[in-house]
Structure formats: C-alpha cells, structure tokens
Amino acid sequence: MAGLIVLGTASNAGKSAMVAALLRIYADRGLAVCPFKAQNMALNSGVTRDGSEIGRAQLMQAEAARIEADARMNPVLLKPTGNGVSQVIVNGRVYKNMKTREYYREKEDFLRKAIAAYRSLESEYDLVIAEGAGSASEINLKDVDIVNMGFAKAVNIPAVLVADIDRGGMFGSVVGTYELFDARERELFRGTIVNKFRGDVSILESGLRFLEERTKTPVLGVVPHADVQLDAEDSLSNPVGTTDRGAIDIAVVRLPYMSNVTDVAPFYRYPDVSIRFIERVESFGDPDLLVIPGTKNTMTDLTWLKESGIYARILRHAASGKYVFGICGGFQMLGDVLKDPEGIECAGEADGLRLIPMVTELCSEKEQHRVETTLACGGDLLKGAEGLKVEGYEIHMGRSVISGTVDALTENGGVVRDGRIYGTYIHGFFDAPEVADVLVDRLRTSKGMSGDNPLPYDVFKEGEYDRLAHVVRESIDMRALDEIIGL
To answer: What radius of gyration, in Å, describes the C-alpha atoms of the chain?
Structure first.
C-alpha cells in the first residue's frame, strides 16, 4: 500500500490544508484515500459516528477524502488543560490526564498504538496520507517523536516538507530542517513544497535551485496563497480569522482554553456579517450576538471572565435585551453554579453568570456522541426555525440540571430563556441547513436590513475542498509526487 507523510517547517505552515488538498486530488482520481495523524495536540476536536473523539483536522480531512472518519485516523489526541497537563485521548477514548514527562514515559506504547492504527488503515485504503505536527526539526523532542520523522521511520514512508514562505525565513527553515535530519531521515525526505506564496514565482527561481542543491531533493512546487475556509486545527493558536465586512456584529469571547471555535465558522459565509473575538473588556463593544464558546477548562475560564471584567459586561449585555448564545462550556457558564467535587479541572465550586437556572457538576465520565435532533423552540433569535433538523456532537465532562422555567431549544437538549438567552451542548449547531440563515435574517431585521443568504454550509465546504485541490494540483509536480508515493 502507498503512504506519505506531510511535515512542516513550523506550526501553521499549512500541513493540514495540504493533506486535505492531496486527499481530494487522489480521491478525484478514484483512489480510496484517508488521513492520519499519529499524535495531535489541539482543543478543536470532534466525534465520529461511533462516538470516538479525534482532532477536528482529521474530521475535516476525512470530508476532503469523501469518507467517514474513525478513531484510527488520530489514535493519540492531547487536549491541554493547564499547568503542563493534558487530557490524553487514545483510540478515541479518554485514557487519563498526564503531565508532559509522564506522557513521555509511555510514548513507546503510544507509538505502538499509532503504528497499529496506521497499519489497519493501510490494509483498507489505496493511500494513507499522514500529517506531522509542528516543526519537523525539534531535536530536543527527537527521542520522544511519534508523529514526525520518528513515525515516518517506524512505518517506512516517504516525507515531503511544507514550508510557509508568507511568514519569512523560508529558505533558512528548509535548509535548517534538512541539516537536522539524521541519515535515515534524509533518505525518507523526498521534496519540498513552498506554500502561501504571493507574487511572481520567477523571482524565487535562484532560491529554489539553491534549496534543491542543499537538500539534494526537488522543490515539488510553489503553492500560491489560497483564501479558502477550512476548519482550524487548534482553537488557541489559529482560530478562524476575524472579519470586519458587514454591519451585523457577532462577537465571540476568546476564552484562554477555548475549544471548537469552528462552531461559528458557518457565519463567515455571510458578506454582511462580521466575526470578532473579545480578549479584553475594552473590546467588548455592543455586539448583536454574543457567543460564549466551548472550553477545555470551564472553571478556570470562568475565573478569567470575572477577573478580566468581561463577566460583568456579559451581564450588562444580557440585561439590555441582547442575545447571548453559550455552547458546551459556554452553556455551563450561563448557569447558576458550577461544581467540581472530583477535581476534574479544579476542585470546588463557582458562581456562573446566573442567566439560566441550572447547576452543572463536572464528573470523570466523558459524554461524547453524535446528535441528531429537531429544533423545538426558536425563541426570538431563531423564530421560525422550529422543526429544522440539527446534527452535531456533544463532548463534555459535566452534567447539567435545570432548576427553573425555560424553553427546550431542541427535542433532547439545550434551553432558551426569555427568548434571548440560549444554551446548548451541541457542537456544530449552526452547521445545519437553514439554522444560520434564520439567525442572520433575524439580526438583519432587527437592524432594518435585508440580504441574500449563501450556499448551504455542506455545499460551501465541498466547494472549498475542490478549490483548494485545484490550486495545489496546478502548482506542484503531481507526476513527481506520484513517483515519491509509489503510485
């Protein structure tokens, strides 16, 4: 079976997008292809059809490959919880919370599990395209590497290097990475892809020849900067970018441990909607809709809300009759009290925003499953959306009990209070056909505006995968890449 690993000179070099593009290209040729990442560290995660948790990037890449995602595509997922501790997900299920050195002590077992997952996929697909993590040249981590060249050597697959020229220092990054490879790694290293270039490629020719001479491998192509919208891999380092295009102001609280910020991604399609992130009280403004997103550490982020002054501003915003929408951890914060008797995050309890009569208790058993339901009460913001189908997933470690009068947002979860305060555990709530349209139309009406709605989100995403694949296909030497892969 054929295989390839796509490495990067640095984080955010474009590895995830490049893997997605190559998967779509080879899927278009009729090959059965799938993504793989041995170890992912990210707070953007999702749930597969069987209830397994994996990195959001691999879910996105599976969509690009036109296949159903499963846990084997990301056998090890690390979700930082603070203080050098991460929740470790193995084969889609919670293993335990581990400190860095504790994790490293068990890395050989994690590598074995990753190899087993890869070999299983390899037996079912024509081509598996793996993704590295961060920089491929972190020599201090080489002894514990199970995701970059360490994994490539373990399963004997060729590697290509994606280098981001947009941020500068690309030539030094490529040469430096090559120089830090050992002899076996240099054998597996087969070429470089220059990514995110803006301008005339001819001005790079002498530099590209230099790279080929120094690394003894070809430059496979120069990919121009492609303005496509894909799900972000990590909520902390690279959330979906802020826009300021339109008069409708949707603001998202950028919590320190914010997760699954992709929940608001569907709104980026609307030319009259602006999405911005609130990191300090001075930038709170007067949004038409305030979103409190998910978080990996609800208790800590609730404390941050209070200390930053944003907590008080949220209460003023709600008291003025404006809309608030809490998702997952953000939903928990909207309640009266959060309790953590087992010390899952930080032992004790804390007052929530008291905008929804609800008590949440964190517990060790993680809720993770897909959701298919129907909108029951739209309140004021989603009036007219009743009966629409909603599909998404829940992924949280808390149980919430409602203690007052509220309306049910959906048939099996979520609430609406006073028609303006919304809470749900469902990630992907706004992905559903027409739900985002109804919401944006309501905000338009409240501002005396009108506007046209874009393509459904699933159709939009398919177009983005195709557009990215076209850019990559036209920019790199696919025949040379085929030879590297062994097709």
So the answer is: 23
CB contact at 8 A, 5 and 151: yes
Q: Are 20 and 55 in contact (CB under 8 A)?
A: no
Catalytic position from the list 34, 377, 396, 427: 427
The count of C-alpha atoms lying within 13 angstroms of the C-alpha of 407, restricted to the half-sphere facing its C-beta, is 17
Contact residues for 117 (Cβ-Cβ < 8 A; gap 6+): 36, 38, 71, 72, 73, 75, 91
User: First-to-last CA distance in the chain?
Assistant: 9
306 CB contacts (<8 Å, ≥6 apart)?
none
Nearest-5° Cα angle at 20, 18 to 22: 70
The pTM score is 0.92
pLDDT, tens only, 298-323: 999 999 999 999 999 999 999 999 99
d(CA 328, CA 123): 37
Report whether 374 contacts 382 (CB < 8 A): no
> Are 457 and 63 in contact, with CB atoms under 8 Å apart?
no
Cα 209 from chain centre: 36
What is the rounded distance in angstroms from the CA atom of residue 74 to the CA atom of residue 58? 7
Residue whose tokens read 């990442």: 37
| 149 has pLDDT over 60 | yes
Q: What percent of the chain has pLDDT over 70?
A: 97
- Concerning whether 225 is annotated as a catalytic residue, the answer is no
Which of the residues 317, 328, 377, 396 is marked catalytic? 328
Active site residue 377: no
